[in-house]
Amino acid sequence: MPVFAPPLADHLYTLYDLLDFETHAQLPGFGHCTRDVIGAVLEQSARFSSEVLYPLHRSADEEGVHFDSGVVTTPKGFKEAYRRLVDGGWPALTASPEHGGQGMPHMVNVLFEEMINGANLSFGLFPGLTRGAYVALAQHGSAEQKALYAPKLASGEWAGSMCLTEAHCGTDLGLLRTMAAPNGDGSHALTGTKIFISAGEHDLTENIIYLVLARMPDAPKGTKGISLFLVPKVLVKDDGSLGARNAVACGSVEHKMGIHGCPTCVMNFDGATGWLVGEPHQGLKAMFAMMNTERIAVGIHGLAIAEASYRNAAAYARERLQGRAPGGARDAGEPADPIIVHPDVRRMLMTQRALTEGCRMLALWTAQALDVSERHGDAAVRKQAGDMVALMTPVVKAFLTDSGVEVANIGMQVLGGHGFIRANGQEQYARDVRITPIYEGANGIQAMDLLGRKVLHLDLFGSFATPVEAFVGRHEGNDALAEFVEPLAASFDLLEDATRVIRERAGTHPEEVGAAAVDYTRLLALTAVAYLFARAADVSLPRSNAGFHRAKLATARFFMQRVLPDSAALHAKILAGAGPAMEMDEAMF
């Protein structure tokens, strides 16, 4: 029987014991974030996810969305669930109080999004995209745009969606053709077709606010000629009331491998009225506010599915009887032992657990830096934190989604044939999570952003290296922590060496960056997670007499001994260079 049970004890441990949320809550604007308040928010998030969203998880997958003449109807139960989401104030969790939001830390939102997406990823996409649109508008919209649209997006009364991709171009947005012609009254008429638009059309809200990339008539070629436009599905009057339907419509919805409850749309803009957001030809700068929000959010999707898959696999392994334990029968009164006694099943479960807990720590550590970058009183501290967020955003997106796929596949393997059939839920996790390494910039693109831009061009590596080196130096000679610190130090040395080698080669052999990027991203991610597990061990060692902390130490040991050794292989692959990938003639493929 599939289960869904958010790990609230682990959430609170990571927030308070590992990342010192008590001190974090002293940042300006977080005075209301007492431990009692945060505990209540997490408990209510878990209840909403478990009682409202999870019961729709499988039924929405089987029903899917309905499309008829441009109208998209979401699966049964979604409208009521969305109304309860809005009534509960959940979309406004991190929105600014000036827009009716609650001003909660990004760290709390990470855990909320983990829960709702683990319960029902298709549903979670709707408020997630709306939050991204709100962030972009709050940062780059005009005062009039913020006043008219931000409160409605913050509350979830209206939904948001971003429209980037076109049929002839994906990541290479410099090739896009959608045009925006001035109307003479400050608005523009947008004409073009966008594809792969998640939640582009639906029946959950009476209006959808599209953020659309397009070119103005005088735009230069390439990415320097892209502008961002706000295009409402239903035009909004000056007093905030709704007017006529805009000239934008859904042409079709895609038939997909997973996330069947969320429509992926072809959107046609036929002279639709839109308004410029930010400066002309600076659309990517404004859109990246939404894209970076979504990249972290998609990383959380990977974490969410990993957590759900692990919990289901562990529950199954405790109940499924098959074979006997290597050391002899555990229960002679039963015909067989539960499969959790078998070392290979333990290996799979521990891999799931280590990756899931590591992903959660990495996401929360990054969200903590994001809060600091926005709110700390010292400009130098804000910049350092902002550099860390910029560096880690592609890592969070890539590593968490890759891990989500890996953990979901391991979950299917734990269940064996029962994982391959629909009744037990594991195959849906594998199908739903598979899109996450692809959208919001495929993980190869994330890797190129990390290595080519963030490390080599912007030189942000030090924002990560500084706390790691300080931790290792502080615990040098600590015998009790050596089993955690020494593997971390070794992995960090490999990462530093890989960074040096790629930097030396890149000037004369530009292929080296692309050839190394994916392996480098995973090497940095594993090192970052090792750092966080070492910190967790430092927290839990003094309390190792408690079962919860013994489990934390066991998970940290497994990561250090059975996952982190991949760092050596990644380092070797990076040093092998681009030659093995590039030497074969193209015609031979």
What are its keywords?
589 residues; alpha+beta; 7-stranded mixed sheet; two-stranded antiparallel sheet; 20 helices; 11 strands; 11% strand
Describe the fold and architecture:
The chain is α+β, with helices and mostly antiparallel strands and 589 residues long. Helix content is 57%, strand content 11%. It has 20 helices and eleven strands. It has helices at residues 8-18, 21-24, 35-53, 57-63, 78-87, 106-119, 121-140, 143-155, 283-319, 343-375, 379-415, 417-420, 426-433, 443-457, 461-474, 482-506, 511-540, 547-563, 566-576, 579-582; strands spanning 66-68, 71-73, 159-163, 179-182, 188-198, 208-214, 227-232, 234-236, 242-245, 248-253, 264-277. Strands 3, 4, 5, 6, 7, 10 and 11 form a seven-stranded mixed β-sheet that branches. A two-stranded antiparallel sheet has the order 1-2. A two-stranded antiparallel ribbon has the order 8-9. The relative contact order is 0.09.
Q: How would you summarize the topology of this molecule?
A:
Blueprint: H1 8-18, H2 21-24, H3 35-53, H4 57-63, E1 66-68, E2 71-73, H5 78-87, H6 106-119, H7 121-140, H8 143-155, E3 159-163, E4 179-182, E5 188-198, E6 208-214, E7 227-232, E8 234-236, E9 242-245, E10 248-253, E11 264-277, H9 283-319, H10 343-375, H11 379-415, H12 417-420, H13 426-433, H14 443-457, H15 461-474, H16 482-506, H17 511-540, H18 547-563, H19 566-576, H20 579-582
